[in-house]
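Thought: the user asked what endo-1,4-beta-xylanase looks like in 3D. I have the sequence; next I should run the structure tool and report back without guessing.
Action: structure_tool
Action Input:
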Amino acid sequence: MWGTGSSSEGHLRDHAKQKYIGSAFTSGALSDQKYVEILGQEFNCMTPENEMKWGSLEASKGQYNWGNADKLVAYAEQHNMKIRGHTLIWHEQLPSYIAGLEGKKAELEQVIKDHINTVVGHFKGKIYAWDVVNEAIDDGSGKLRDSIFSRTFNSSFI
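Observation:
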C-alpha cells in the first residue's frame, strides 16, 4: 500500500500531519539497522517498552540507571520524534524494595513522589506526555486492580 506514485503512498509519519503515529520501542533493538530504519521512516512518536518503568530505572532506592532510557530519548530526538513517557506507577516491574513498604502509607507516598520528581525532572523538556498510572483498573472485573498501591492508598493513588 505504501510506496511511490499515488496519494496513499509514502511513509506513515508523512500522512500523520498534526497527529502522532507511534510505536513501542526497545533500546536493545537499536543495534538492528533495519529496525531503526523502519522506525525512523514510519513513526513520529515513540513509547519505550520497559526502559522507563520503575524497576528498570531505579532498581535500588535512590540509585538510577538512565542508560537505556537515555538511548531511546536520544534516538527519538535525532529522528524528530515525540516521546511518550511510560510509565511512572504500574503494578508490575517494581523494584523489590517497594514490597517492603506495603501498608506504610507515608513512606510509600514519599518514595513515589521522589521517584516521579526524579524521573520527570531528568526528562524535563524531552517527553511530551506521561503515562502516570498504568493499568489501575483490573481487566477482568473492571474494578480497582489489586496492587501495593491500591492496598495502601485505595483509589487515591490515581
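Thought: the tool returned a structure. Summarizing for the user.
Final Answer: Structure for endo-1,4-beta-xylanase predicted. The helical segments are 12-16, 33-42, 54-57, 67-78, 105-122, 148-153. Residues 11 and 42 are 5 Å apart (CA to CA).
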